[in-house]
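Feature request, filed as a ticket because there's no other form

It would be nice if the structure record came with a short human-readable summary line next to the tokens. Right now we just get the raw output. Example of a typical job, pasted below so the devs can see what we mean:
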Amino acid sequence: MKLKITQSVITVLIASLLLSACASAPPLSSLLDGFASKAEASISQKSQAQQQAQPQTQPSQPQKAPSGVVTSLSSYESALEEIYTQVNPAVVSIRVVQKQDGASANPAGGFSLPNIPGMPNFFGAPGQNGNNDNQPSSPQYSEALGSGFVWNREGYIVTNNHVISGAEKIEVKFADGTTLPATLVGADPDSDLAVVKVDNPGFDLTPIMIDNSGEIKVGQIAVAIGNPFGLENTMTVGIVSALGRTLPSSEGSAAGATYSIPDIIQTDAPINPGNSGGPLVDDRGALIGVNSAIESPVRANSGVGFAIPATIVSQVVPELIKNGKYDHPYLGISGLSLTPDLAKAMSLNATQRGALVVEITPGGPADKAGLHGSAKSATIDGQDVKVGGDLITVIDGSPVKTIEDIIAYLADHASVGQKVKLTFLRNGKEQTVEVNLQTRPAKIETAQATQFNQSNQSQSAWLGIAGQPVTPEIAKEMNLAETQVGVLVEQVQAGSPADKAGLLGSFKPVLINGQRVVVGGDILTAIDGKTISTFDDLKSFIQNAKPGQDVKMTILRDGKQLELTVTLAEHP
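Raw output as currently delivered:
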């Protein structure tokens, strides 16, 4: 999706702008009262007339629409016109300019983009704007267009974080054409919301009306007003097509820690690049969400758009205005929803539901409360997955069926410093613990550490672990002497000899030399009295062992030395 804005090749990536409502419009539902009954009566009358009619001897004449249907459609149109009239003055278009590192641009000056309206595209590639490719390149810039809406009369404007991220210049254009410079007040990548401010506009601003009831229902009217493809003041209409979706936060990374935005509204109201940051309103013109993303194979409307709910907007925006940031309550776990296959791998009833704790953040609230992550692995549908961690089933009395239930509860009902009570299953037994929520830390970029996966080796004897040698950095993270040697057990294959003997894998991710390493598991230091200093030592021993052989393993667990007897098996 490229928009030429000069004769040179300038590609513009568009983020959406939607207008906010200032005064209340008559509910569309009230204007449509009687529509269904009138239409039904009209159809019934027509059916009866057709049954009584004699065969026609004259050519049939064009039929006119029943008057009741015409009247109801007219009311529907009038209601939409009223919504637009009242909401449009609160909607703005946002233009940002960003400096782009030329090394990251491809030769064509374009990029492959995710399905999120408003992410920047780039121009000024070598050879453009009169530059000689052999001369030092001048700074390259990108331009993004998006949407937003007036929050209050003091000049605060709400939009998406991904619309203004990295902006060196921000301009806000109002419905009457007035364009003013704006400054960034605060941004929250984890809710994909941001606030910018214009000073002394010279006219009265029209704030949007907000619906904080949270009583949104699937099937209700949803109206978007914004700046799709740079076409300002565009209104599109649809319905709320689903509720309770989750979206990754706008600055999440597949290589590092990611967070999710809960309670997302799904709509089929056409949302396209350029609608990001604009409002999604109901039949009264009240804000129910901020348009943020689309799901589409072609980066354009395919009937699946997503909006951040007004309840989250009302929590985050005042804090951004006051403090420039928003502190999210943080539990300190990563997890996934329990499925029947996962339940079976953990010897639980197939009907069991809950949020399986996969990893625990060291020093986080869950770690301090003593929760355990998943230290075993199982093969499900040909893929290795972690299992065996605590299974959270209740939070503060509210049932937990999926990991999304925890995310939504923390966003809607919890705050930093609050204590929450978790009920969980550990080894099939129910336990309860209180967790003191902390402030969510900034995300970290991570990379995979080198691993030795014994289960991938070709030898016939099988232990069933994945691990890596203990380094001074790993030893330090586990509160051991930096001279400690051995093999850190990172994962234990479910049902393997190591699992049956009780070896424990790791579940606490840390960042060591730019790499993501999971620690906290057993450290194997000797087998049958022979010191294990490296994974080569372990591999050599296993290669020379036989299935059915009993071996005595010396391990360190929580700093204490233990001995376990393991019966090696034939590799499956």
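Something like this underneath would help us a lot:
The chain has a mean pLDDT of 79.
The CA atoms of residues 13 and 121 lie 4 Å apart.
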